[in-house]
Amino acid sequence: MHDMAFKTDIEIAREAKKKPIQEIGTRLGIPTEHLLPYGHDKAKVSQDFITSLQGRPDGKLILVTAINPTPAGEGKTTTTVGLGDGLNRIGKKAIVCIREASLGPNFGMKGGAAGGGYAQVVPMEEMNLHFTGDFHAITSAHNLLSAMIDNHIYWGNELEIDTRRVSWRRVMDMNDRALRDIVVSLGGVSNGFPRQAGFDITVASEVMAILCLSRNLEDLQKRLGDIVVAYRRDKSPVYCRDIKADGAMTVLLKDAMQPNLVQTLENNPAFVHGGPFANIAHGCNSVIATTTALKLGEYVVTEAGFGADLGAEKFFDIKCRKAGLKPAAAVIVATVRAMKMNGGVAKADLGAENVDAVKKGCPNLGRHIANVKSFGVPVVVAINHFYSDTDAEVQAVKDYVAQQGAEAILCQHWAKGSEGTVDLAKKVVQLAESGAANFAPLYPDEMGLFQKIETIAKRIYHADEVLADKSIRDQLKSWEEAGYGHLPVCMAKTQYSFTTDPNRRGAPTGHSVPVREVRLSAGAGFIVVICGEIMTMPGLPKVPSAEVIRLNDLGHVEGLF
Q1: Which of 182, 198, 286, 314 is the most buried (most CB within 10 A)?
Q2: For the chain, how many structural domains are there in total?
């Protein structure tokens, strides 16, 4: 066991020798007057500077994705950060682009989102708490619109909104199951007309998706205006701009729209911006952060949430399609422990060597490799090393991946930082510079909405069929008639399986995908397809992390992980 086992992520982060954020900006060629500092170690990059970069050529975009997550943990963000540091170590100007952390999972069970071990982005505590306030701004802008809708109805409802058809829910950045389904405006005439409503978590808000897909403030305001908030009795849509909320919402989001610059433990630049969930939203950091990084660096390493069936598919079919991005290579993160879990080993028994279980669990990885390759993007597998992994187990994964026509590389960034990802960095450069990428999304814009859902279900999840009631098919048809047929679809389903059953590991076939609900996100520019039992407002676990998070005698945060 390496000596690091005694140090937590937060302790390692606290010992970091951070550089002033102006110094990190200068290395990227960002003049100090274009950095808006939030303290000494984080800053926003000004819109004027971002606009001035448009004529520059783009660097190479590398996606880090993973196998389906298991309770054993895969370390996708850790690998993203480790690879960014590794590329800088071998002499490439590389920038990491990741998402901001939501307070819900932080105080729930998933923990933070800043990497781990010696592959972290700092300041860890701020990044996992309020950071620069972006999520609060999104929450405020979202709920301003909610308040203005109900206010419009209260003052005479000039737009003739059918109060049974208000589709805009409220949000907060916390896991609070009590708010999933509620009744608002109780208490008589002075409080308005009672109706059913509910809360989603902020990271599922369409405002979050819009912020992450907008190119600039003008684009942001246009997309906010395009949000469909309700319907009239004749089912015609009422837009955010009809409520006249788009201007004020843009004002609230003015600073949140600007990417946040921070640094890794090795003082390399990282943009941390935006944070839609990957199982219920599109799971990528903001387009503005990624495109800005591509103008400033030779390599940009970004991640997309959860397994490649969700994160990578949405990155390719939504983010890259919308932003005109062409990824040069993809890294799929896997661990020996996760392979063993996919091979049927219980979490408690993961420490014991079990080469057979590793081999049995590899088909999950194999399917992700084939899926990512089907987008025309070359793939390398990163085996994120744990101290309990044996040489025979690692070799079994390497042999399996070689049979799939790819290479698996052992990575030890958690324990060694960039020194542990030099081999991966070299392979990524080789793939990216070979020009092998020939990226194309999975389906064309012109394909019908239901066919798009079927295409993802069959080609990515390897399902036999999509099950959807006539009401859902009719809803999709009416959106096509209203001019939304060209939109991509954003699948909301469990992250733990290719199926909609979180307990089915491996690479199952012969399953069907039940669609429970579809929601139009006209501003973000996609249709959300809710499959199986998926919650857009999570609950806290029986023992939430919040129970152990506290300030110690030195005034330091303890219990964040």
Answers
A1: 286
A2: 3
